[in-house]
TrEMBL record:
It comes from Pseudomonas fluorescens. PANTHER family: BLR3264 PROTEIN (PTHR32439:SF9), FERREDOXIN--NITRITE REDUCTASE, CHLOROPLASTIC (PTHR32439). This is Sulfite reductase [ferredoxin]. Residues 29-85, 258-324 form the Nitrite/Sulfite reductase ferredoxin-like domain. The keyword Disulfide bond does not apply. InterPro entries: Cbl_synth_CobG-like (IPR012798), NIR_SIR_4Fe-4S (IPR051329), NiRdtase/SiRdtase_haem-b_fer (IPR005117), Nit/Sulf_reduc_fer-like_dom_sf (IPR036136), NO2/SO3_Rdtase_4Fe4S_dom (IPR006067), NO2/SO3_Rdtase_4Fe4S_sf (IPR045854).
Length: 440
């Protein structure tokens, strides 16, 4: 195995990684990429300990099912060493940036799943980390593997997505480029050809893309999809699909108690307010996983966590103890549907203190009947949300935001509805909209 010491040479990138701490206004950031969003209880405790000992005690759940530690000071080397000792590092140092594979948090346990994605996921992750050519990929280049679960993020766009389906009784993987499983697929492959397809797509991308074309959408702007599919067909046997419709995901399955595919077991989901975990929250959840589950946790794209393999009769107790740790468990709480970036408290680009404003907005919306996601972004980069939320507040100055509503066909955040609103004015407008039979 190659050295994973922090001094190992890494590709230049503005994105933090486990081996590369990136500076922000509130200190250094270390991002821990988790295999399929999963980690053991011991690893979770190690993250909590590292955040408390070597940083500011702030742990964030990301919208890709990963964790990051903020506020790192001069002891970054000690922090990285502790995380490597816990087994949270990549197979090779150069593979850290590119292990970007998102699974459903319900992989292997979801009652609606068509396949268990874990065996294929392990193959893909190993190739991403050990094939030197794939280390040329951007740290943002990402793959999604969807097993047809009810608990699935279907709005995040990926450079390559694969989704389980079948045709004439034969298991297939539909796939698409620069999109998500709710889109029409480019083609399909036999399930056993899934790994070969991923390798072929990555190799074709690297064959064709210029240095400035870091994402699949950049390549598609110059190469028609039909041409790419034709070239893929020369490398992997492709199948056409007569019909395609990805089964719907079910809202709020990442919170509360939900039965698993395995008889007698459930998973329990809870959310740290605005995606931020204290060391006590994370270590407390880990100890619950040890006591009641199989000593594992799963992070979700909704910035929440799951404890799988809890016996049905003990699930309510676990949910109550997660709530006692300060995690959100009630889907009626407005904070469970508000996403906010770090904002001006931790980011030099932030135009407003989005975390504080989000809490204020949640208090105003406590009795609002409409349940839709609201995204507060301190600048136009939209770091906290990987898709256009139904409602976006884009900061213009401290405590003031432009208001956007998502609309089909509209790029970016959607349609601009009002400018430079205070949080109180935003709340009043959203409340009036939620109580009206017509959108405001």
């Amino acid at each position: 195995m190659k050295s994973l010491h922090p001094s190992s040479a890494l590709r230049p990138s503005a994105c933090p990684g486990l081996l590369r701490v990136v500076q922000a206004l509130d200190g250094g950031i270390c991002r821990i990429k988790l295999d399929g969003g999963s980690l053991s209880a011991d690893q979770a405790i190690a993250v909590a300990d590292a955040a408390e000992r070597y940083a500011g005690g702030v742990i964030e759940a990301t919208n890709r099912g990963n964790l990051q530690i903020r506020g790192i000071g001069e002891e970054s080397a000690a922090l990285i060493k502790s995380l490597l000792t816990a087994g949270l590092g990549p197979v090779t140092a150069a593979g850290d940036d590119v292990r970007n594979l998102m699974l459903s948090p319900g992989a292997g346990i979801d009652r609606q799943m068509r396949i268990d994605t874990w065996p294929l996921a392990r193959q893909i992750l190993y190739s991403l980390q050990t094939d030197p050519r794939f280390h040329q990929l951007s740290a943002k280049f990402a793959v999604q593997l969807d097993g047809g679960e009810a608990l699935a993020m279907l709005e995040h766009r990926h450079d390559l997505w694969l989704s389980a389906t079948e045709q004439d009784g034969e298991p297939l993987l539909a796939f698409g480029l620069a999109g998500c499983p709710s889109d029409a697929p480019a083609a399909a492959v036999l399930l056993q050809d899934g790994h070969a397809l991923v390798v072929a797509v990555l190799e074709l991308f690297l064959d064709l893309a210029r240095a400035d074309q870091t994402r699949m959408r950049h390549l598609l702007s110059e190469h028609p999809l039909s041409s790419l599919v034709q070239q893929l067909a020369e490398r992997v046997p492709l199948r056409s699909l007569a019909h395609w419709q990805r089964g719907p995901s079910v809202g709020a399955l990442h919170l509360g108690v939900h039965p698993q595919r395995q008889e007698g077991f459930a998973y329990v989901g809870a959310m740290p307010p605005l995606g931020r975990l204290s060391p006590a929250m994370l270590s407390g959840a880990a100890r619950l996983a040890e006591s009641f589950g199989n000593a594992s946790l799963r992070l979700t794209p909704w910035q929440s966590l799951l404890l799988p393999n809890i016996r049905h009769e003990e699930a309510a107790v676990v949910l109550g103890q997660l709530h006692a740790l300060g995690l959100l468990t009630d889907t009626g709480d407005p904070l469970t549907r508000i996403v906010a970036c770090t904002g001006s408290a931790g980011c030099a680009k932030g135009m407003a203190d989005t975390k504080s404003d989000a809490r204020q907005l949640a208090a105003f919306l406590h009795d609002s009947p409409r349940q839709e996601q609201i995204h507060l972004s301190g600048c136009s980069r939209s770091c906290a949300c990987a898709h256009a939320a139904p409602v976006t507040l884009l900061a213009t100055m401290n405590g003031h935001y432009d208001l956007y509503f998502r609309e089909a066909g509209q790029p970016g955040f959607g349609a601009l509805r009002a400018r430079n609103l205070t949080i109180e004015a935003v709340a009043a407008l959203l409340d009036a909209r939620s109580r009206s039979p017509f959108d405001a």
